[in-house]
Here is the input.
Amino acid sequence: MHILSNLKYAEGSRRKQKRVGRGQGSGYGGTSTRGHNGAKARSGHKFKFWFEGGQMPLQRRVPKFGFKNINRVEYTKMNLGDLQKLLDSGKIKDTTISKELLLENKIIKNKNRPLKILGGGELKTKIEISADAFSKSAITKIENLGGKAIKV
Here is the structure.
């Protein structure tokens, strides 16, 4: 009959508990398996995971340089040459191009970043494109063909 007071763990399922600090006869007396002195022998010992034993830590040895502007705007960039390739291949059929159209066709992936059109490559088709920003060369190339660069 199984009564709560009679329950035992299955044979071999548990290791024998190491009882430290119970005298020399136990084999774990004296220093209680902590060695002799040092920080790890003391109670309350906790080193940070980056602690290097008193050696100058890596994050303090490596030189610091540069500056990261927290107000920087990261753009999704697109060259006019890339747009021309998409128009030639037929991935974009309409000459009125917007960020939403590029997202729908999975040409750009990040919907949260603003879109910037750059003037790299050659544009042969008259297009009307709306984006968050344009480079000067992109605006001149688009307008020379009679197209429109609309800032959103």
About this structure: The chain has four helices and six strands. The chain has a mean pLDDT of 92.
